[in-house]
Amino acid sequence: MAAACPWCKSDLLGGHGVAGPPRPNVPWEDKSLNVFVRWWKTWAGTQFGFDNFWSRVPWSGGHAAPLKFVAFWNLQLLIPMLLCGGPYLAFMMMAVASNPRAGPEPAVATGVIIVCAVLFIPVWFALATYGVYVAAGIYHLFLLMVGGQKGFEATFRAVCYTVGSDLWAFAPVPGLQIVAQVVSRTFAFAHAHQITKGRACVAALLPPLLCCSAIAVSYVAFAAVVIAALPRR
Predict the structure, then answer these.
(1) What residue ranges in the chain does DSSP mark as E strands?
(2) What is the per-residue pLDDT across 64-91, written as a single tens digit (0 to 9) for each?
(3) Fewer CB atoms inside 10 A, N or C side of the chain?
């Protein structure tokens, strides 16, 4: 009887009851599964499967499948955003209709609000796609610096399949999302580029560290400007 991972339910022994080389496979690319099952197994594998999961991921095969995984994740984020924003949009339209003298005609203003809300959806997905390519490019640069062995496609697939780490941002634990993302991408980069986990961790840690440092510096600079602009007694 083959053992199975308690999180992603993948076979730990190659499906034959004896240890063997892992079969190349990522649940998201298994068309025989329901889309929600595919997403759950992939998310759980990236967050809890570690070596067992990432040793099975094929590092070639195009950008389409991982991009669809990112799009499905952003669709899940979009739904609560629309649910939260719906009442706000309704309030805006009611405010415009109740006070026509404050601006353009209520019908025109309401139409503009609706058009902006509708256009937000494709813009949201376009920015998400652009963002994942930019992120993959930045990580790939750091991976090359620490001795990465594979091309951009391997990095891209690793970055796409680890976007589910963002789910930890909803947990009431500060910094948990960053830690989960660094851990997940450390294992992903180590397998994708055939480097040690130490080097992979450096490549996974530096971009968010530099980003947080840049944000901190910008806040300090803004505070310094505000203080300098205050009238002196």
Answers:
(1) none
(2) 999 999 999 888 877 766 666 666 666 6
(3) C
